[in-house]
Amino acid sequence: xxDRKDKVTARPRLETPLASRFRGFDLDSEAMARSSENxxxxxxxxRYLAIQTLxxxxxxxxxxxxxxxxxxxxxFILLNLAFSTQAAYAAPLILLAQNRQDNRDRISxxxxxxxxxxxxxxxxxxARELASLRLAIGEVTTRDYLRRELDDIRESLTxxxxxxxxxxxxxxxx
Length: 174
Description:
By secondary structure, the protein is an all-alpha fold. It has helices spanning 2-9, 29-43, 46-65, 77-139, 143-165.
């Protein structure tokens, strides 16, 4: 009974692809993804469209006008087969390239989220520090306040000196 339980827990997670069952035919998935991305990029260029248009035009012209070279007569079945084969390979290659781009976008999004969270934490920390500095500055004695206090003390000292310099008059309270 424990063997069955071990087998159940040993299953891979759903988002993890299964290992290839064909041991004799191994492909580097990263290299395949890079090459499919390169092919998909090339298929989306104006250069590719120009080359394909030129090949199709030459194909049709040779099969219509060069009677001795006619290898694919008018319905152009061989040309149609070539287009079908091209489409059969192009679509999966484009999908592979899209999956690779989706993975890059997902990683970039995760990095952006992490960076945004760190920026938010830094901003909150700086806001707290700024608030504490404002409170501390509010408690710091300013030059004007100190000058007023010194002036008050000086005036008090001057009054005391004047009072001390006055002769004592009998009957006056000091």
